[in-house]
Design a protein that fits this description.
Layout: H1 3-25, H2 29-42, H3 45-53
Length: 70
C-alpha cells in the first residue's frame, strides 16, 4: 500500500469510529434529566439554597448527603 492509500484507509476508519465513540460517551438528554430530578429530589431546601449561593466566587459548598449521588 502506498502512503495515500494508508492515509485514506485510516481516515475512513477514524470517520467511522469517532461518531460511534461520541454517541456512546454522551448521555441522552432524558438520562440527564432523570439524574438531575433524582438528585434534586434528595436535596433539602437548605442544600438547594447553599448550591445557589456558592462560596468564593463560583465554587459550591459540599453536600455530605449527596456524595454518593454525584
Amino acid at each position: 500500500m502506498n502512503t495515500f492509500s494508508r492515509r485514506l484507509t485510516l481516515t475512513v476508519i477514524l470517520l467511522t469510529l469517532v461518531p460511534c465513540a461520541i454517541s456512546q460517551a454522551t448521555p441522552r438528554k432524558i438520562e440527564v434529566e432523570k439524574r438531575v430530578d433524582s438528585i434534586l429530589g434528595k436535596m433539602t431546601l437548605e442544600e438547594k439554597i447553599q448550591i445557589i449561593g456558592g462560596v468564593n466566587d463560583f465554587f459550591t459548598r459540599p453536600s455530605p448527603g449527596l456524595q454518593c449521588a454525584l
